[in-house]
Amino acid sequence: MDEREAALRQAHGHAVRWLASLSDRPVPARATVDEIVRALGAELPDAPSTPADVVDLLATACEPGLTAFPSGRFYGFVVGGTEPAALAADWLVSAWDQNSVMRAVSPAYAAAEEIAGAWLLDLLGLPPESSVGFTTGATMANFTCLAAGRDAVLRRNGWNVAHEGLAGGPPVRVIAGQDRHMAIDLALRYLGLGRPELVAADDQGRMDPEALSRTLAAAHPGSRPGPEPGPTIVILQAGDIHSGAFDPFAETIRAAREADAWVHVDGAFGLWAAASPAHAHLAEGCAQADSWATDAHKTLNVPYDCGLAVVRDSSALRSAMGLRGDYLIQHEHGDPVDKVPELSRRGRAFTVWAALRSLGRQGVADLVDRLCHHARTFATGIRAIDGATVLNDVVFTQVCADFGGDDRTDRVLARLLDEGTAWISGSTWHGRRVMRISVSNWSTTDEDVSRTLDAIRRAASKAFRP
Ligand SMILES: *Cc1c(COP(=O)(O)O)cnc(C)c1O
Predict the structure, then answer these.
(1) Helices in 399-465 by DSSP H: which ranges?
(2) Can you give 131-173 as a three-state secondary structure string?
(3) Does domain 89-355 have CATH number 3.30.70.100?
(4) pLDDT, tens only, 84-142
(5) Atom 5 of ligand 1 has which residue's CA nearest to it?
(6) What pLDDT, on the 0 to 100 scale, is given for residue 227?
(7) Residue ranges of the domains in the chain?
(8) Of 116, 125, 176, 167, which is closest to residue 149 (Cα–Cα)?
(9) How far is the CA of 134 from the centre of ligand 1 (A)?
(10) 223, pLDDT greater than 80
(11) What pLDDT, in 10s, does the model give residues 146-196?
(12) In a mutational test of the pocket of ligand 1, which residue from 77, 181, 305 has the highest number of ligand atoms less than 8 Å from its CB?
């Protein structure tokens, strides 16, 4: 057995043991950064080591410092675990080592990206002519879509930003909901568009369509006088990270269209509602937008890092992200590289293809329904705890709860993490501390939910004792 094969076998053994440990290990990490640094050894050795020994050291030293993100009892952020087919495909992606840039050089990658992209548009109910770019996550997917939108609205106003830059051009008006995700502000910063004008939302975080119409009708502080609306982008949201709520797309998109705006939807996890007949009503009307950002590493449960930038007008995406290089071998109709910011990158679409091929249409719908079902079970269980209140309408996968004031809520959270059955984080929502549960893992079972509710009850009864 050569050294490479020995290292791969070593990694396989550790990976299988790690996954088998998930059902019973504490979900939070049990060691500190300093402890792991000591276990790994901070000194760079002079002499080489065999690959298998390196893998063994890495796995053994890191194990206590790993959070069980792929556990069915991890409910932090909005991140999923890893579908078995996608995880195994990801190992192949590393072994194959395809630089997934050009059709001519990796026909296999281009084929998988083409199929996975078409399946996604179909499942998410988005226009079939759209282009799908595979980014590192939803932050970069939002960036990619908004770059296409920025360039398009400026082009419509006689300004070529690719040639002229932003300085001296007509100001671009960007309007977003008050409860947008902070990744939107980050993407706008990268794009030189500054902070968005904010539109009021209701108590669940849904944009108020009348407030949007009023904002659109009011003059933009920096705009030139005249009857034309000027370059405008409206950013909507499918899935609020606290409430799971969806903007009212039909009304907001109608208002945005009247102002000739580019409409973008951040649907990092929520866009997947459209793949379930039982939950598709939440995303109703959202397909009328111009671009959509979502993640595959959240609801679809593929490994990091994988986001999806979907743009209806494929030429707008290509003119924002496409490039020409004398040493590249490029296809006249565009390459995978023409849809994303990066050049060299791993073959992300292989894992998306594997997850979708493994689940099938029914499996994706069942996955979404299961996550929503677990969220409702959490809400019912928490409402039955003395002193606890569920603060949001549980329409999708998110639950926010209060345990009788900020201090108590924080104490319940601290006890829960300390006990280790589950990982749930706190947040501040509309000025109050909340326990924020996000059900995003394909492997979460009814038993995981009931074990977690038991742990929440234990933590609450201890926290309430004077
Ligand atoms: C997670 C999330 C993002 C950012 O996505 P990353 O994949 O972490 O880059 C943006 N918007 C919403 C609504 C999200 O939930």
Answers:
(1) 406-419, 446-464
(2) EEEEECCHHHHHHHHHHHHHHHHHHHCCCCHHHHCCCCCCCCE
(3) no
(4) 999 999 999 999 999 999 999 999 999 999 999 999 999 999 999 999 999 999 999 99
(5) 138
(6) 54
(7) 2-68, 89-355
(8) 176
(9) 14
(10) no
(11) 999 999 999 999 999 999 999 999 999 999 999 999 999 999 999 999 999
(12) 181
The verdict on the CB of residue 63 being under 6 Å from ligand 1 is no
Strands 131-135 and 173-177: unpaired
Write phi, then psi, for 91 (nearest 5 degrees). -60, -40
How far is residue 349's CA from residue 461's CA, in Å, rounded to a whole number? 46
Q: How far is the CA of 192 from the centre of ligand 1 (A)?
A: 20
Q: Which of 75, 79, 139, 438 has the most ligand 1 atoms within 8 A of CB, as the residue to mutate?
A: 139
Pairing type for strands 262-266 and 232-237 reads parallel
158's torsion region: left (phi>0), alpha (psi -120 to 50) or beta?
Answer: left
**What torsion, rounded to 10 degrees, do the Cα atoms 289, 189, 224, 153 define?**
-30
Instruction: Tell which residue, 157, 156, 174, has the closest CA to residue 215.
Output: 174
295 Cβ closer than 6 Å to some ligand 1 atom = yes
Residue type, 306: C
For the Cβ of 296 lying below 6 angstroms from any atom of ligand 1, the answer is no
Rounded to two decimals, what is the model's pTM? Answer: 0.96
